[in-house]
Amino acid sequence: SENSLEYLLSIGNICRSPIAEAVFRKLVTDEKLEHKWRTDSAAVSDWNVGRFPDSRALSCLRNHGIETAHKARQITKEDFQTFDHILCMDESNLRDLNRKSNQVKDCKAKIELLGTYDPQKQLIIEDPYYGNEKDFETVYEQCLRCCKAFLEKYH
């Protein structure tokens, strides 16, 4: 549709979802589709609101020529009512989001795991926070595969 909206989410909104958001934004920009998509990311919790992404996430993106100015925010009721897709990283995100969406009347967002789009069938995108650079790179690769497949399906 002309005004498809895409939304990417994780627990703290400083590692996985800013990577996914930045990757998706670059894909739609490269395909000259940015006018059709509104891309954002948010957190289920309020732990990191206002914080920039993890420095390792930023340096991973920079290594791939991607910049982001994202600041963490918490998901809102309006997000469930205005976005077409809310894509999350793991089962606990999914549970929390489904629970929150049940409290929102006229929720229109389709809530699912970003990993359902992975051609390599890696369903869960693990939180790299306690890991190292290599783990952030893995998240980047997963996000890239999933976002490409998602875009192909809905473009």
UniProtKB/TrEMBL annotation:
Location relative to the cell: Cytoplasm
SMART domains per the UniProt record, alphabetical: LMWPc
Enzyme class: hydrolase
Domain Phosphotyrosine protein phosphatase I residue range list: 7-153
InterPro entries, per database record: LMW_PTPase, Ptyr_pPase, Ptyr_pPase_sf, Tyr_Pase_low_mol_wt_mml, Tyr_phospatase_low_mol_wt
A Pfam family annotated for this UniProt entry: LMWPc
Catalysed reactions, as listed in the record: O-phospho-L-tyrosyl-[protein] + H2O = L-tyrosyl-[protein] + phosphate; a phosphate monoester + H2O = an alcohol + phosphate
EC number per UniProt: 3.1.3.2, 3.1.3.48
Active site as annotated: R16, D127 (proton donor)
Gene3D superfamilies: 3.40.50.2300
UniProt entry keywords in alphabetical sequence: Cytoplasm, Hydrolase, Protein phosphatase
One term of GO molecular function: non-membrane spanning protein tyrosine phosphatase activity
GO CC terms: cytoplasm
Protein role: Acts on tyrosine phosphorylated proteins, low-MW aryl phosphates and natural and synthetic acyl phosphates.
Family: Belongs to the low molecular weight phosphotyrosine protein phosphatase family.
Name of the protein this chain belongs to: Low molecular weight phosphotyrosine protein phosphatase
Source organism of the structure: Prunella himalayana
